[in-house]
UniProtKB/TrEMBL annotation:
<dbReference type="InterPro" id="IPR017441">
    <property type="entry name" value="Protein_kinase_ATP_BS"/>
</dbReference>
<feature type="region of interest" description="Disordered">
    <location>
        <begin position="1"/>
        <end position="23"/>
    </location>
</feature>
<keyword id="KW-0808">Transferase</keyword>
<feature type="binding site">
    <location>
        <position position="67"/>
    </location>
    <ligand>
        <name>ATP</name>
    </ligand>
</feature>
<feature type="region of interest" description="Disordered">
    <location>
        <begin position="312"/>
        <end position="349"/>
    </location>
</feature>
<keyword id="KW-0418">Kinase</keyword>
<dbReference type="InterPro" id="IPR000719">
    <property type="entry name" value="Prot_kinase_dom"/>
</dbReference>
<keyword id="KW-0547">Nucleotide-binding</keyword>
<feature type="compositionally biased region" description="Basic and acidic residues">
    <location>
        <begin position="319"/>
        <end position="336"/>
    </location>
</feature>
<keyword id="KW-0067">ATP-binding</keyword>
<protein>
    <recommendedName>
        <fullName>non-specific serine/threonine protein kinase</fullName>
        <ecNumber>2.7.11.1</ecNumber>
    </recommendedName>
</protein>
<dbReference type="GO" id="GO:0004674">
    <property type="term" value="F:protein serine/threonine kinase activity"/>
</dbReference>
<keyword id="KW-0723">Serine/threonine-protein kinase</keyword>
<dbReference type="InterPro" id="IPR011009">
    <property type="entry name" value="Kinase-like_dom_sf"/>
</dbReference>
<feature type="compositionally biased region" description="Basic and acidic residues">
    <location>
        <begin position="1"/>
        <end position="17"/>
    </location>
</feature>
<feature type="domain" description="Protein kinase">
    <location>
        <begin position="28"/>
        <end position="309"/>
    </location>
</feature>
<dbReference type="Pfam" id="PF00069">
    <property type="entry name" value="Pkinase"/>
</dbReference>
């Protein structure tokens, strides 16, 4: 959750020493402080011994992030705001889990009478990320596969929008990065479910990422109206920042000054100026995201942007991002751009540098586990013609559709051989869950018939890529396990496996 509208980004009171390492919080033990936002402090934690040993539990020896949102000592209105923010996070985590969204494991109210400052705080237990896009940008992000990062953000937004939600606070701080470099959108404290074409959010948001219409939006009883196009605007700012050393496309020394520049542009009194460092393809994409009105932005959905990125990757035959193009071309909408690499008034000071350098290194060689780009680049057969697509896993068991905890009971298997019965001896060790997005590179129409729990039968299979390090480079998803039917080339018939 972020600063009240009309103020600079809030940093909040210093709460960094609230929970020392070793402190027990529910079933978790704090290991270190990760960072603090306006209303919350985030700690790394590991499961307490007895949680690890609990019979029948999924193994969760891995670290989690605890987002602690204290309510003690706040005015009733502020406390209500925290509770509302936590409610939005939990609701979204419960209903719209996805590999491109940070996973929420549980939430509880902390009872800590010995620590009055956090007694009664709301705690969200989340999947722990390795760092954030903000840290990566602060470290320079050179060498990171920036196109893949942006595709990951688009995937997360496309899923949110498809599910009827608006994030409403997209910014590099809220784009987290897994250890494998995968993108995970986070911080759903302002996320809102659409009712019709709009959702409603409290009059808050991070000034640098608010579209022109938000500066004039009336505050109604339910809050301020937002639409998915607000996330697309924020995405445009983020794309610019990713390629322009963290600089905003809007000039100004403070968020308020940059907000004034956004309004000038929105009213047609100033052109859009982009840094020369932004390569032409990404410049065009960012310009569409930054169309000045909702109406002009609306055609540029996250889905359509993702398709443009995929088409470009295909056309390039899966070559790595060519950052050298960044200084070559000038586009009509960038007359008056800043010089190459100039960070301009919109640049931010570097912070969190050491952690970010590690992250950048991880990203350079990283293999995101489910991004489409990997398959385009790595199709071993070369037969996909670079036309990899994603398929979202569908589990017909309703009890599994709302779960985000990756319970083994709700996992689904991928076949080794689509021509053999889909049974225990014919599945790879990698499991998948409802909502996972897999990269598919071809389809086999006449494999082994599979019938799902709702008696749907199909002989169609998709060949999907598996993460690096998996014993099998690819496996097979039966079509009854996805609702997607991407236009893919036919697979060569796999050789019989004995
Ligand atoms: N699940 C997570 N794993 C690792 N780091 C996280 C996680 N969630 C948040 N963080 C980091 O913790 C810090 C604080 O996050 P928090 O969401 O409280 O505030 P913020 O997003 O920085 O600010 P705001 O108050 O504007 O939302 C940030 O640096 C963020 O990148």
């Amino acid at each position: 959750m972020t600063a009240p509208r009309g103020q600079d980004d809030a940093t909040g009171p210093d709460r960094t020493d609230l929970l020392p390492p070793g402190h027990r919080v529910g079933d978790w033990v704090v290991t270190e402080l990760i960072g603090a936002g306006g209303w919350s402090t985030v700690y790394a934690a590991r499961p307490a011994e007895e949680r690890r040993d609990r019979p029948g539990r999924a193994p969760d020896s891995d670290e989690v992030a605890l987002k602690v949102m204290p309510t003690a000592g706040l005015a009733p209105r502020q406390a209500r705001r925290i509770v509302e923010s936590a409610r939005r996070e939990v609701e979204l985590g419960r209903r719209a889990g996805h590999p491109r969204l940070i996973g929420l494991r549980e939430s509880f109210v902390l009872s800590a009478p010995e620590l009055p400052a956090v007694d009664g705080a709301i705690v969200l237990v989340m999947e722990r990320a390795a760092g954030s896009l903000r840290e990566l940008l602060d470290a320079g992000a050179s060498g990171a596969d920036r196109g893949r990062l942006i595709a990951g953000i688009c995937e997360g937004l496309a899923h949110l929008h498809r599910s009827g939600w608006v994030h409403a606070d997209l910014k590099p701080e809220n784009v987290l990065l897994g250890r494998d470099g995968s993108v995970k959108l986070s911080d759903f404290g302002l996320a809102t479910e659409l009712t019709g074409t709009h959702g409603y959010v409290p009059p808050m948001g991070t000034l640098d990422y608010l579209p022109p219409e938000r500066w004039r939006a009336p505050l109604g009883e339910l809050g301020v109206q937002v639409r998915p196009s607000a996330d697309i605007w924020a995405l445009g700012v983020v794309i610019h920042e990713v390629f322009a050393g963290g600089a905003s496309p809007f000039p100004g020394a403070t968020p308020v000054a940059r907000g004034a520049a956004v309004q000038e542009y929105g009213e047609g009194r100033a052109p859009l100026r982009m840094d020369h460092a932004v390569p032409p393809f990404w410049r065009a994409l960012a310009a569409d995201c930054l169309a000045p009105t909702h109406a002009a932005r609306a055609p540029h959905t996250a889905e359509s942007l993702l398709a443009r990125i995929a088409a470009r990757e295909s056309a390039q035959g899966g070559t790595r991002e060519d950052t050298s193009e960044s200084t070559r071309e000038t586009e009509p909408h960038d007359a008056g751009t800043r010089g190459p690499g100039a960070h301009g008034a919109g640049a931010r000071p570097a912070r969190g540098r050491a952690r970010a350098v590690v992250l950048a290194a991880a990203l350079c060689g990283a293999a995101g586990t489910t991004l489409w780009a990997d398959a385009v680049r790595e199709d071993p057969s070369g037969r996909a013609g670079g036309r990899a697509r994603t398929v979202e896993v569908f589990n017909a068991e309703r009890g599994c559709q709302d779960r985000v905890d990756r319970d083994p009971q709700c996992s689904l298997g991928l076949a080794i051989d689509p021509l053999r019965p889909y049974a225990a001896g014919n599945v790879v060790p990698t499991r998948v869950w409802h909502g996972d997005v897999l990269t598919a590179d071809c389809r086999l129409p006449d494999g082994q018939p599979v019938i799902d729990e709702e008696d749907l039968q199909s002989t169609l299979w998709f060949r999907v890529r598996l993460p690096h390090g998996s014993p099998y480079p690819a496996a097979w998803l039966p079509a009854v396990r996805t609702k997607d039917r991407p236009p893919l080339p036919g697979c060569p018939r796999p050789p019989a496996v004995r």
